[in-house]
């Protein structure tokens, strides 16, 4: 089936599609209530501000998955890296190698850019994804804890 699968770089007209994939991954992760993105905001952030880039996976010309990424930077190695924010394939299309192909497209982009690292986060309960990432050669960074400021907490940090 992989011969009918194509990966392309998203274009501004894909903003609604990207939002639909974000909503699907949020539903899968039991976080639908946290999605505040709109197609207009995604269009501005991704395509005008170039804050991220997106690959769309299509099977027989129908979109079935996406990978959304952005550059980060390592002070230790002095190079940009890629942060994979979301990788999602529609549940009915899983197990056909489409997720692997999207992951490899991101890795190829990291290689093309000369990145030393490719990083992402995965929910601890998401065993299928953890197994997939391990299969792809990833190692968990158990010695690091991710911290976050969100919304009003950002403002409060400024005021402290």
Task: List the keywords.
single chain; 160 residues; alpha+beta; Aminopeptidase; 5-stranded mixed β-sheet; 5 helices; 5 strands; 24% strand; globular; GNAT family N-acetyltransferase; GNAT_dom; N-acetyltransferase activity; transferase
* CATH 4th-level superfamily: Gcn5-related N-acetyltransferase (GNAT)
* Major beta sheet summary: 5 strands, mixed
Using only C-alpha atoms, the radius of gyration works out to 16 Å
Determine the structural class based on helices, strands and strand pairing. Answer: alpha+beta
**And the CATH topology?**
Aminopeptidase
Q: Helicity level, as a percent range? A: 25-40%
Number of helices in the DSSP assignment: 5
CATH class: Alpha Beta
Compute the separation of the termini in Å: 56 Å
What coarse outline follows from CA principal-axis ratios? globular
Number of strands: 5
Question: Unreliable stretches, pLDDT < 50, 5 or more residues?
Answer: none
| Oligomeric state of this protein | single chain
